[in-house]
């Protein structure tokens, strides 16, 4: 049977209704593919309706410009209090609109947090940071932690997380870098930095050859930290306290390639206990393997 490549009115209504209820676009695409739609057509149909005028959650608020010139477009993150993904509901706890930051509860289950730590524990290495001059990864003092990473869709467990995370971030799974695990002991910190590649750094061009600029980040907390280890946004005075399974999400590159300097952020020193996180960085374009 040939895959379906046209949208009957009842399917059009079905997509509109489900998007308005806050369903993740990817889950709608999957349902359509199960119902014999062509995958590329299904994605285009859902995306097309999302950017149209009919869906309540997709209505763009008026664009606003910050004092530093960054234009705040409609956030990629869904409006509403609950984000439904294909396998888990994620609760929005806090939103900041300028810069666009959200604290999210229940992105990972407790068991998934434990499993990520278990799989990482014996392959941790001293963390590196991108050298601004060369674009290469170097060990530097600003990041006193150790880490490891999982290639995109490395196995069914990781692929399931990559997919859920892409649904929460509302950005294609193949635009994501592989999940990066970080572990900090007492005294471990990550000095304030930008997650995007600053255009003034010569090394940034090297970083952007595949996938382009980073557009958004989600830092997920894998354990409770006894004291310290908060994620700080010093320019807006925000501090997010780690909670197992929760996350802080933020956006910093808009469709005009502008970069939001208010997303300067860091990890404050852990003063008691330890801190485990997993980070997803999304790129403008395809970066990794196709979805599993
Ligand atoms: O550990 C953190 O809270 C943290 C802070 C700043 C993580 C990152 N950046 C990151 O992974 O980019
Ligand atoms: Zn960061």
From TrEMBL:
Residues 175-284 form the Fe2OG dioxygenase domain. Keywords: Dioxygenase, Iron, Metal-binding, Oxidoreductase, Vitamin C. The keyword Iron applies. Its cofactor is L-ascorbate. This is Fe2OG dioxygenase domain-containing protein.
């Amino acid at each position: 049977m040939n895959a379906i490549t046209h949208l009957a009115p009842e399917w059009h209504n079905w997509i509109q209704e489900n998007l308005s209820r806050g369903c993740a676009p990817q889950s709608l695409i999957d349902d359509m593919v199960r119902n014999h739609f062509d995958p590329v057509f299904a994605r285009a149909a859902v995306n097309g309706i999302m950017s149209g005028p009919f869906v309540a959650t997709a209505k763009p608020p008026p664009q606003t410009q910050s004092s530093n010139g960054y234009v705040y477009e409609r956030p990629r993150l869904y409006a509403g209090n609950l984000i439904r993904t294909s396998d888990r509901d994620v609760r929005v706890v806090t939103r900041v609109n300028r810069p666009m930051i959200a604290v999210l509860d229940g992105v990972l289950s407790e068991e998934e947090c434990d499993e990520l730590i278990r799989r990482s524990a014996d392959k941790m290495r001293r963390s590196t940071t991108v050298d601004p001059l060369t674009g290469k990864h170097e060990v530097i003092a600003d990041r006193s932690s150790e880490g490891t990473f999982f290639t995109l869709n490395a196995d069914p467990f990781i692929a399931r997380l990559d997919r859920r995370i892409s649904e929460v971030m509302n950005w294609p799974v193949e635009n994501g870098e592989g999940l990066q695990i970080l572990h900090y002991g007492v005294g471990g910190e990550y000095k304030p930095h930008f997650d995007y590649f600053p255009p003034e750094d010569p090394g940034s061009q090297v970083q952007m050859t595949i996938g382009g600029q980073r557009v958004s980040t989600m830092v997920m907390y894998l354990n409770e930290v006894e004291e310290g280890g908060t994620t700080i946004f010093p320019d807006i005075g925000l501090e997010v306290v780690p909670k197992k399974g929760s996350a802080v999400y933020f956006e910093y590159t808009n469709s005009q390639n502008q970069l939001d300097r208010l997303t300067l952020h860091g990890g404050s020193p852990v003063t008691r206990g330890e801190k485990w996180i997993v980070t997803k960085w999304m790129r403008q374009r395809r970066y990794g393997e196709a979805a599993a």
